[in-house]
Amino acid sequence: MSRTNFDVAALRSLLAGMELGSFARAADRVGRSTSAISAQIRKLEEQAGTPLFRKSGRGLALTAAGEAMLGYARRLVDLNDEAAAAVRGVDLAGGIRLGLQEEFGEGLLPDVLGRFARAHPKVRIEAVVARNAELLARIDAGRLDLALIWADGGLGLPEASIPGYALGQRAVEPIDEPPMCWVGSATAPMTWERGEPLPLIAFDRPCQFHAAATAALDRAGIPWRLAFSSPSLGGLWAAAAAGLGLTVRSRYGLPANVRAVPAGEAGLPGLPSLPLVMLRAAPTMPPEVERLADILLASVREARAA
Question: How does DSSP classify residue 93?
Answer without folding.
Answer: -
